[in-house]
Specification:
Length: 250
């Protein structure tokens, strides 16, 4: 009996490590992604130089496959916590509605933790699941599109990412799914890191409110950079850092 309980616990730990580890790697990748795609802020020349370098040195090709793999593994292992039954999902929806309306009333408290704290944590979890669904659909589409772009000459004139074709597809309407994906990914990643930090004991060193504030700073900074990148890709704003590459050889 004890042995069964311990092997069950070991299995759960292994599953936690896989879903948490892949989530952590994807969140770290997304910070790198913001910087790489953000090279468009220096203009088309900076973006093309970086994309060509990553492809010429065979960094982009294995990376896109590794991210696709991590993305699928994370989706499968993290999804085990999503209530599968329709009745349970309905219950979650009711719970979300209840939580949205609760906690608005003033309750005097002298304790360090507000009695409504658990509501915030539950709301974060529910939105984690909702954004996860959106990311699965839009992220899969984006990863397939980018893989086709990197490995085939279907977009543009050669195989590989080019600013001309990237900007053209964003301007032709892809900015809409990208804007939704950006919002969901940044929320999902920053809340995911916050939950991971608490799960693995970071709240022994930093209080939960501090960790939550850190999560919010990360969310707004990365979302801001991503949004600026998107409006530049959409051609609505000129690259604000173009002056950095002015005067260089073309
Ligand atoms: C190695 C894998 C990836 C590569 C090479 C890549 C590359 C790119 C490129 C070149 C763009 C510019 C638009 C375009 O060309 O269509 C872009 C935009 C974008 N990508 Fe990715 N991407 C990767 C993975 C991901 C993943 C896993 C996500 C999230 C699930 C994601 C989310 C976004 C978003 C939201 C944008 C819009 C621009 C922004 O505001 O950052 N990408 N990506």
């Amino acid at each position: 009996m004890t042995q069964t309980t311990s092997s069950l616990a070991q299995r759960q730990l292994a599953l936690e490590i896989i879903s948490g580890g892949t989530g952590l790697l994807l969140a770290l990748f997304m910070w790198g992604h913001v910087v790489l795609v953000g090279s468009i802020l220096t203009g088309e020349r900076g973006f093309d130089w970086l994309a060509t370098a990553l492809e010429d040195y065979y960094i982009a090709q294995p990376t896109v496959l590794a991210i696709l793999f991590l993305f699928l593994v994370h989706a499968v292992f993290a999804a085990r916590k999503i209530p599968a039954q329709l009745a349970e999902r309905k219950r979650i929806a009711e719970l979300a509605k209840g939580l949205r309306e609760s906690g608005r009333e003033y309750v005097p408290t002298r304790t360090a933790h507000s009695p409504f704290r658990p509501h915030l944590e539950s709301m974060l979890w529910i939105w984690q699941v909702r954004t996860g669904f959106v990311i699965f659909v839009l992220g899969s589409f984006h990863l397939v599109l980018i893989s086709v772009d990197i490995f085939t000459p279907l977009f543009g004139t050669v195989a590989g990412i080019e600013s001309v074709s990237s900007m053209a597809r964003v301007q032709q309407g892809l900015w809409i799914p990208y804007a939704i994906l950006l919002l969901c990914v940044e929320f999902h990643a920053s809340v995911g890191l916050y939950r991971l930090a608490i799960k693995w004991g970071a709240d022994k060193w930093l209080s939960r409110p501090t960790l939550h504030r850190m999560e919010q700073v990360i969310f707004w900074v990365v979302l801001g950079l991503g949004a600026l990148t998107l409006v530049v890709l959409a051609g609505l704003v000129d690259p604000p850092l173009a002056f950095l590459l002015e005067g260089g050889a073309s």
